[in-house]
Amino acid sequence: MKGSKNMENFFDHMEEHEDVNMIKLEVNIDDISSEWLGYTMDKLLKEGANDVFYVPIFMKKNRPAYMMQVLCDQKILENIKRIIFEETTTLGIRYYPVTVHRLGRRFVERKTPWGVVKIKQGIYNGQIVQESPEYEDCKNIADRHQIPLKKIYDYVWKKGYKGKET
Amino acid sequence: MKGSKNMENFFDHMEEHEDVNMIKLEVNIDDISSEWLGYTMDKLLKEGANDVFYVPIFMKKNRPAYMMQVLCDQKILENIKRIIFEETTTLGIRYYPVTVHRLGRRFVERKTPWGVVKIKQGIYNGQIVQESPEYEDCKNIADRHQIPLKKIYDYVWKKGYKGKET
Amino acid sequence: MKGSKNMENFFDHMEEHEDVNMIKLEVNIDDISSEWLGYTMDKLLKEGANDVFYVPIFMKKNRPAYMMQVLCDQKILENIKRIIFEETTTLGIRYYPVTVHRLGRRFVERKTPWGVVKIKQGIYNGQIVQESPEYEDCKNIADRHQIPLKKIYDYVWKKGYKGKET
Amino acid sequence: MKGSKNMENFFDHMEEHEDVNMIKLEVNIDDISSEWLGYTMDKLLKEGANDVFYVPIFMKKNRPAYMMQVLCDQKILENIKRIIFEETTTLGIRYYPVTVHRLGRRFVERKTPWGVVKIKQGIYNGQIVQESPEYEDCKNIADRHQIPLKKIYDYVWKKGYKGKET
Amino acid sequence: MKGSKNMENFFDHMEEHEDVNMIKLEVNIDDISSEWLGYTMDKLLKEGANDVFYVPIFMKKNRPAYMMQVLCDQKILENIKRIIFEETTTLGIRYYPVTVHRLGRRFVERKTPWGVVKIKQGIYNGQIVQESPEYEDCKNIADRHQIPLKKIYDYVWKKGYKGKET
Amino acid sequence: MKGSKNMENFFDHMEEHEDVNMIKLEVNIDDISSEWLGYTMDKLLKEGANDVFYVPIFMKKNRPAYMMQVLCDQKILENIKRIIFEETTTLGIRYYPVTVHRLGRRFVERKTPWGVVKIKQGIYNGQIVQESPEYEDCKNIADRHQIPLKKIYDYVWKKGYKGKET
């Protein structure tokens, strides 16, 4: 957050803010194949949903089922509902507004012996409260060099946070 | 939705709509027997709740518990709360309004070698996006004729959707 | 356990024992409707399975699924497998032997103002370590007399355990 | 609720009410150790949160995760958010208002051969609909006297509810 | 199962059998990021594990956690254990032998207006008890032609099972 | 594993081994308060069980329930069963033998500005494959110095693994 270091490069950041335009949708699903649920999750994320996840629930008539939850901006609410009605067997979708408080985000780059790894920093009230290596970058290195994913994360963490490099 | 076919009979339908009078209630339950939870679910559904289901949760003091969720129209909110307070051991119920977008519904009948099966169709923007055989009808046939439930569904699906009969 | 009391009647008991003939079956289900799972559970219990239950699991390709577990005596293993293959879409069933240590069981009857309730006692090393009212009896009274199920249990518990009647 | 009995002492009660100032917060957590989640739960409860619990969820990229839910009064919303951002790795928190209907509460004391146990009563529309022994009191007696926790509860229940002492 | 039809082509089958060489491994994971769990699942499946899945569990010290379960042939047990120890933070793995009863498998091809879909059939005691379209084939068609996945399955089912084509 | 460093001290280690004397016990619990389950978990761990955890399951008659699983050495099997029968309401316990492959364990100490933190290392085939700070040590420092738990872990990780100190 101070000056850039030679091991790090700033290339993106987003301000901390409260988003009052978010919607949470919920659908109870008890007569659909799980294969379709994996497919529907992908389609909703491609459409622009912020998040999609499944919660195990127990419904009437001894039905073990899942509740699908979707977070999206109200601007795309109709598209999201359309995809849910077209790809699942549900006859109803419930939804309600939620506020989302998002931290400021910034990406820095860290060099490792195997390539560059992006670090995502979370900024709260002007302070960095989070730092975590980007999963996709670590995964690519692990796959390419046949090194346990754990070790890539180790190296990145070891190189320090908040400027405390060794 | 078009004309009736000789294999099918229309006898009911409900318009697509957005219901803004729905309430979602939530209760965390950590000191009650599961036997009572099965009983309470039935009682709430008989009272007119649209849906009742259980979600596994992990509470403080290492308590594996369940959150009961109930969907109901605000008109019966007080009755629903009364039943929950009388039948469970909870000391508090939280609730909030939700909007429910329901598809238009229509029932058609399909003849099978073993009897009639009702099909429920879901209509979105004037199009049929869902069709599924009514579980209770399929179950009765399966029990009566000692045929795997799977086979009853197979037969009904085979006979086609959206008018594509063989 | 001592003598019978005028409020209680003995009419059944089963010895504590270790059963070495039990089998646990497990099936991962990710392409079947939950409606069928409720149906299959009933069918397996009717066939003589000791217990059937569902566990939420997360499978590959982002599939939220369920593992069905069945407990049965090895004598009916083939029938149980047949029902699972016929009623679900699974292509494989895994199973292994388990030992079950069962408490001695005895039923006593307790009179209440609304009728008789059976109490099931569990006996371990000759001592009663459990007592619980039979759910079905309590439920019938609750339904018939429109009394919260909780209150039926309260009355029965109040009347004491292990002979400590008031 | 009538007069005090010699076996019981009244020493506290809170009126039944509807609380419209409550907030429910939700955080999806998929890159944090469970060790930290147990720690964060304690910290939030110490800060004044009414309740904290975890729900299993299945997220994208085959990530089995947990949703942490927190109930708190809107007065401490900022403090609660601060703790979540500082102690977990989340980059966003979603929240929305909920209404909580709380029963009237009253504590009575009951003497047992091993010491005093507080009973918490729940009052709905002027009627006692709940009574349950305080867990901490029963636990202390069980630990101190090496008696199964079950037996402490048995004794307390046997001594009656709503004044029906034997 | 008898003769081939012009709409179907046989190209593979596997006999029904009981496999007595299978191992089930279990690992309780409470101090690892979910990101790594998704990665580990992939790696184990690439290595030859028959199945990998996650079960939500609640551990001591209020830790919401996951149990990873792996099914594999005993021949690759050591490789599977090695991957688990290298990619996760666990200090121990428990495992035990299980028997797996697998149905006979056969693939047939079905032509659709959009391309060929493989159907997997399950054979039990010489009878076809299962038929389900291969997910990957249906998914590819759905993606390529922008048709809801549901409709691809509908078409395939409609075309019949066990030779009952329309 | 090589020589000791001035920042680290060796004081304990346990050899990698396969334990063939372990038992897994399972109990389905559907008529007991969650308060008791937290209590029972503690009691079993005090008695010497290696691990105790809860799995959400869905049982017959619409009962959301939990399966308690316990890992213990066969030497204490009878004690463990006794506690389960005395503290829960179950009438039966199922169990079976499992093999547990445990990594070699070694503790090293690392100095931090706030005190000493023990690191637990896991050794597989003579190699260190794991290292993680002891939770209790990190927690104590976090509580005492009012520092987020995350930061204590950060510092310890930064100081390196496998001898790569800065």
Structural class of chain A: alpha+beta
User: Biggest β-sheet of chain A, characterized?
Assistant: 4 strands, antiparallel
Amino- and carboxy-terminal Cα gap of chain A: 18 Å
Most extensive chain interface and residues per partner: A-B, 24 and 29 residues
**Helical percentage of chain A:** 25-40%
Mean pLDDT of chain A: 87
Q: What is the total tally of β strands of chain A?
A: 8
What is the 3D form of chain A?
globular
Oligomer: homohexamer
Helix count from the secondary structure assignment of chain A: 4
N-to-C series of helices and strands of chain A: EEHEEHEEEEHH
Strand arrangement within the widest β-sheet of chain A reads 1-6-7-8
Low-confidence stretches of chain A: 1-11, 161-166
What radius of gyration of chain A results from the CA coordinates?
Answer: 20 Å
Strand content of chain A: over 45%
Task: Give an overview of the whole structure.
The structure is a homohexamer of 166-residue chains. Chain A is α+β, with helices and mostly antiparallel strands and 166 residues long. In chain A, 28% of the residues lie in helices and 45% in strands. Chain A has four helices and eight strands; from the N terminus they run ββαββαββββαα. In chain A, the strands form two sheets. A four-stranded antiparallel β-sheet of chain A has the order 1-6-7-8, with helices on both faces. In chain A, strands 3-4-2-5 form a four-stranded antiparallel β-sheet. In chain A, strand 3 (51-59) and strand 4 form a beta hairpin. In chain A, helix 1 (34-47) packs antiparallel against helix 2 (77-87). Chain A is globular, with a radius of gyration of 20 Å. The model of chain A is unreliable at 1-11 and 161-166 (pLDDT under 50). Chains in contact: A-B, A-C, A-D, A-E, A-F, B-C, B-D, B-E, B-F, C-D, C-E, C-F, D-E, D-F, E-F. Chains A and B meet through strand 3, helix 2 and strand 5 of A and helix 1, strand 3, strand 5, strand 7 and strand 8 of B. Strand 5 of chain A pairs antiparallel with strand 5 (92-102) of chain D.
